[in-house]
């Protein structure tokens, strides 16, 4: 969204004023959140056998090296997939 960066800056300034320290903020359109919620990067059988399926929304896109580090640190019962600025956790 065109207003995204300006709105993010306004939110960050208000949070800094209210809290006394910087807090990174980001905005997503309803369509972007809907698309993230509907995306399924794991096989249906893996999702069916999992205890939970979560989506984390991040401000910057995650680079492949960070995704590799995340998966290297995760216990075997967790699986992560990164799609742009979303982290999917099974």
Biggest sheet details: 3 strands, antiparallel
Show unreliable segments. Answer: none
Order of helices and strands: HHHEHEE
Structural class call reads alpha+beta
Gyration radius, in Å: 16 Å
Q: State the end-to-end distance.
A: 29 Å
* Strand content bin: 5-15%
Q: Please give the count of helices.
A: 4
Mean pLDDT across all residues, rounded?
A: 91
Oligomeric organization of the protein chains: single chain
CA-based shape: elongated
Across the major sheet, the strand order is 1-3-2
DSSP strand count: 3
Instruction: Estimate the helix proportion, in percent.
Output: 40-55%
Summary, kept brief:
With 90 residues, the protein is an alpha+beta fold.
Q: What does this protein structure show overall?
A:
With 90 residues, the chain is of the alpha+beta class. The chain has four helices and three strands; from the N terminus they run αααβαββ. It starts with a helix and ends with a strand.
Task: Please name the defining characteristics of this protein.
90 residues, three-stranded antiparallel sheet
Secondary structure elements and pairings:
Elements: H1 4-19, H2 30-38, H3 44-48, E1 54-57, H4 64-73, E2 80-83, E3 86-89
Antiparallel strand pairs: 1-3, 2-3
């Amino acid at each position: 969204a065109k207003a995204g960066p300006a709105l993010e800056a306004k939110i960050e300034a208000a949070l800094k004023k209210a809290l006394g320290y910087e807090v990174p903020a980001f905005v997503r359109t309803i369509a972007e959140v809907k698309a993230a919620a509907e995306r399924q990067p794991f096989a249906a059988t893996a999702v069916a056998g999992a205890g939970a399926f979560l989506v984390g929304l991040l401000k910057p896109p995650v680079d492949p090296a960070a995704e590799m580090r995340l998966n290297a640190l995760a216990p075997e019962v967790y699986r992560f997939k990164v799609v742009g600025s979303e982290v999917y956790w099974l």
